[in-house]
Amino acid sequence: MEAGDWQTPHELARAVTALLARRGERYAAVLEPTCGRGAFLLAAKSAFPEARLVGFDRSDVYVEEARRALGGRASVANADFFALDWERVFAELPEPLLVIGNPPWVTSSTLGGFSGTNLPVKSNFKRELGYDALTGKSNFDISEWMLARLLDAARGRRFTLAMLCKSAVARRLFEQSRARGWELAGAVYAVDARVHFAAAVSAVLLVVRGGAPPPEGARGARWPVFASLHAELPATELGIAGGRVHGDIEAYQATLELEGPSRLAWRSGIKHDLARVMELVLEDGGLKNGLGERVALEPDHVFPLCKASDLASGRGAGRRFVLVTQQKIGEDTRLIRERAPATWRYLERHAAAFAARKSRVYARQPPFAMFGVGPYSFAPYKVATSALHKKLAFRALAPYAGRPVLLDDTSYFLPCSSSEEATELERALSSSLAEQFFEARVFWDAMRPINKALLGALSLEVLLARTAER
Questions:
Q1: What is the 3-class SS of 337-401, one letter each residue?
Q2: Opening angle at CA 338, ends 332 and 344, nearest 5
Q3: DSSP string across 218-229
Q4: Is there a smaller number of Cβ atoms within 10 Å at the N or the C end of the chain?
């Protein structure tokens, strides 16, 4: 599926246009920028019979199918979304205008990974800096770029945009709206992507209006969130505070007193991108790597390891281990050759695998380099949580066999100097007060719902003081 598209089922397209009609919307024109086989134009033909219908698609096959389905009722043309002059397209259409559709649901890196050409000109779209830009944070959803392009082009026009997209895309557009000068009133309706597209994606219908006064009773920069296309009342409201979007702004404001800086900083675990060589398991009294090789290394470079899955399941340390080549980023690894010759020979035997690592963070680094490593990695006690799982659970970790337990880069942790400190932090972070704080800020549909920004927003000192009062 090179274009990254999922054709919209007719029943879903009809449900979307029925929702718009139920809201009392009327349009002089309906535009589907990526019309595919024309499901939305066909639904709009019935829902808004007086409207002029216009569609574009890059596939000749889809364009012909849409024309046949619409029977000459619409103007459907072959065009590349990324090459069209959308300002001119909008200027030629009467108002009020409905822009409707289902743009591609893939990311720029996914599409580029299989040589897709359905992409905008490559750029750091999110303007990420330094390490974030290198490690994938600047990756973006194609639909996010496309919808932002349409909203820019529609500036000053009287329009409604109704688009199927990922929930995260809708939130990011909401977050960008003020900075980009989009004067929009919006709402979000949950869509079951498993039912309609057989896709394990959290999806929504995003409906925004521009060029018109906000509806009566609207409360500032808030977008209601509805549980389905048929829901009459919103379940929550999206809101922006502190420069970030929040899924339940009322719950966020109720826990605002817990926000603030902390003495301790959350850290991510070590990153090596070579699990089959660097991660070892204990079997039959010895260590074995992911290639099935028996491994004998000097103990100074081998540490017990807890992965995110171990944290989530409650498994203790003692089965997994990790080979550590550096105590801090940039440290000269060639020192291993004299201090631990067996470890150095093992690393050299797998040098080709290290050289094949694709991440740019290893460029111009010493051989066999790691990232996410520093003095904090070797703190004797830690409180850790998984960044991958859809549940917040915090675990205090103590040394195993006299060695500090290390975490992988799918985990976050607080380095602690004593068992008492770790136990106290684990108790506070597992409290109902902390749960309320995080639940008001987390988006469980995100690829990594638990992140450093979320964890770092909580003042540990305030939390400890409040839980001590209870």
A1: HHHCHHHHHHHHHCHHHHHCCCCHHHCCCCCCCCECCCHHHHCCEEEEEECCCCCCCCEEECCEC
A2: 75
A3: --SSEEEEESST
A4: C
Q: Which of 66, 64, 16 is nearest to 38 (CA)?
A: 66
**Phi-psi region for residue 36, left (φ > 0), alpha (ψ -120 to 50) or beta?**
left
**Architecture of domain 10-248 in CATH?**
3-Layer(aba) Sandwich (3.40)
* Interatomic CA distance for residues 100 and 190, integer angstroms: 16
Domain residue limits, the chain:
10-248, 267-469
What's the CA gap between 408 and 398, in Å, rounded?
16
Instruction: Say how far apart CA 55 and CA 78 lie, in whole Å.
Output: 9
Cα–Cα distance for residue pair 340/299, rounded to 1 Å = 9
Single-letter residue type at 233:
L
Buried b (16+ CB within 10 A) or exposed e, 228-263: ebeeeebebbbbbeeeebbbbbeebeebeebbeebe
User: Is residue 216 packed enough to be buried (19+ CB in 10 Å), middle (13-18) or exposed (0-12)?
Assistant: exposed
C-alpha span between 161 and 42 (Å, rounded): 17
CA dist 283 to 132, 318, 324, Å? Answer: 38, 11, 20
Sole residue written with tokens 């549940």: 391
Residue 412 DSSP symbol: E
pTM above 0.70, yes or no: yes
Q: What is the CA radius of gyration of the chain?
A: 26
Tokens read off for 409: 């880069």
Which residues, listed in sequence order, are joined to residue 270 by a DSSP beta bridge?
A: 408
CA distance 174 to 443: 15
**Tens of pLDDT along 110-145?**
444 333 444 455 444 444 444 444 444 445 589 999
Spans of the chain, pLDDT less than 70: 1-5, 106-140, 212-220
pLDDT for 183 equals 83
Report yes or no: 250 and 225 within 8 Å, Cβ to Cβ: no
Strands 395-397 and 302-306: unpaired
For 422-431, b where at least 16 C-beta lie within 10 A, e where not — what string? bebbbbbbbb
The mean pLDDT value of the chain amounts to 89
Tokens 């603030």: give the residue: 260
